[in-house]
């Protein structure tokens, strides 16, 4: 087990709780969990540990929302996400931590600005790709957001905010948002495991650490399910945007 002070364990427990909450209620809050973990553990260790905690949260998100996913959206995103994962792997190998953090921060803020602009100017409120405009513009949006999501999730486990902006742009209701997001990240996170194992990041110490923190993820996920049943759509959208902005600013600073 990795040796840590009691205060560090408290922060890790908080991060795990937020990770579970983010998976079942407030997707944008997952960035905060990533930030906390990275402030306590070495960067490479935090990447591996966070991924495994997210996978625990994915299980509960799928149990709660698996029937609400929009599979057309997932299939539309798949090719771009794969491309983003590959680009992210190359970028991660060539760049410093500082460059990675600032690049992701700039990308997220740009996505927020684009999403708010689209929501202000979009006509109608159909919950599908056409909410983004024409079918051609919807395909372009899927390619852009998908590539960025694959890129950011590979380099910093921060694909959640990018996909949050995409799902908000499509005007997805809360449960469709959470169901589609649950399947998306369950698939993507499992895909990332062989990459991290191949470069030696999934060590016995990391596995033991996550075993100790997993109960907090479960508690957070269960709390999140209760919150999601009661949260109004407008408040949900605002919280997702606010949490994404907070995470983006932190990455830039």
UniProtKB/TrEMBL annotation:
It comes from the Bacteria. It holds the Pfam family TauE. The chain crosses the membrane at residues 47-65, 74-93, 99-117, 176-201, 207-228, 235-252. Its main location: membrane. Keywords: Cell membrane, Membrane, Transmembrane, Transmembrane helix, Transport. It is found in: Cell membrane. The keyword Cell membrane applies. The keyword Transmembrane applies. It is a multi-pass membrane protein. Belongs to the 4-toluene sulfonate uptake permease (TSUP) (TC 2.A.102) family. PANTHER family: MEMBRANE TRANSPORTER PROTEIN YDHB-RELATED, TRANSMEMBRANE PROTEIN YFCA. This is Probable membrane transporter protein. It comes from Microbacterium commune.
